[in-house]
Amino acid sequence: MRTILIGDIHGCADELEALLARTYAAGDRVISLGDILDRGPDVRRSLDLLYQVRAEGILGNHEDRHLHYQKYTELPAPNPVQLNTHHLKTRSQLLPEDWPWLACMRSFIRIPEHNLIAVHAGILAGVRPEHMQASKLCRVQLTKPDSSASPWSDWEFDAQGEPRLGGFAGQDLARGYRFWTDWWQGPEHVVYGHTVFQKPRLTEQNGVKTFGIDTGAVFGNSLSALVLPEWKTVSVPSRREYCRRVPGE
User: Fold this and answer.
1) CB within 10 Å: which end of the chain, N or C, has fewer?
2) 56 phi and psi angles, rounded to 5 deg
3) How far apart are the first and last CA of the chain?
4) Would you list the domain boundaries of the chain?
5) How does pLDDT run across 177-202, given as a tens digit for each residue?
C-alpha cells in the first residue's frame, strides 16, 4: 500500500482529479494536508473526489475557520467569526453530511513506517505536535529556536526560491524569526502545506527532511502530492488562475 499526501486543494477539483489519476490505485491511503475549502471553483466536487478514495483530512486554517463559524451558528450569541465572499461561496456548496467529516480532521498525522509527520502548516522546534494547539499547527510559519511563533505573518517563496513577505513578516525577520523548517531537527521528517512554493520544496538537515507541497494550485501554478514509499513528488499544472493572492486572507 502506498500513501499519497496532497497539498492545498482549495476547490481545484479538475486538478485533484488529474492528480489522483496519476498517483492513486485502489487500496492506496490518501491524506489531504488541509485547505480543501475556499477560493477555488468547485469545493463540492473536490470533497466528493476525496470521499471516493476514502481520504483522510488534516485540519487546515480554512477548515478551522469554517468549523468555528459553524459552532457559533448553533449558539444564541453573535458570531465573532468573519467570512468573506470565498467563505460564503464555500458554505453554499457544503452539505450537512460534510460537517462530521470536517470536524473529524486531525491536526496532524504520524506515519511511523516512514518516520514522517504530516501537518498543514508546521511544527515548533523541540515541541511534539501533541503539545501544540491545532490552531498553531494549521498556521505556524515563522518561529524562533525557543519555540515561540509569530502571531501572524504571510510568507511564500517566488520562482527563484526567495521569500516574498507580507503581513508582519518583515518585522518578524528583524526580530530573529525564521521559517520554521530552518529550526526543525526532527527526529521525524515532516510534510506540510499552507506556505506557497513555485515547486515542491525539500530541505534536509542532518538526514531529517521537510517537504513543502503547497504549490499554489488555486493561484494558477500546480497541485502537488508526495507519494510514499517512493518519496517522490508529483505535480499537475493548474488549468488557470482561479484566485489572486491576497496577503493574509
Assistant:
1) N
2) -100, 150
3) 37
4) 3-120+189-237
5) 888 999 999 999 999 999 999 999 99
Contact (Cβ atoms closer than 8 angstroms) between residue 86 and residue 37: no
Homologous superfamily in CATH for domain 3-120+189-237 = Metallo-dependent phosphatases (3.60.21.10)
Q: Is the pLDDT of residue 227 over 90?
A: yes
The residue with greater pLDDT, 155 or 210, is: 210
Q: How far apart are CA 165 and CA 180, in angstroms?
A: 15
What mean pLDDT comes out for the span 56-70?
Answer: 97
Give the C-alpha separation, 215 to 245, whole Å.
13
Instruction: Return the CA Rg of the chain.
Output: 17
pLDDT at 249: 55
pLDDT at 67 over 70: yes
Contact criterion met (CB below 8 Å) for 119 and 190: yes
From CA 28, how far away is CA 54, in angstroms rounded?
A: 9
Q: Report the distance separating Cα 142 and Cα 150, nearest Å.
A: 6
Task: Label residue 245 by pLDDT band (50, 70, 90).
Answer: confident
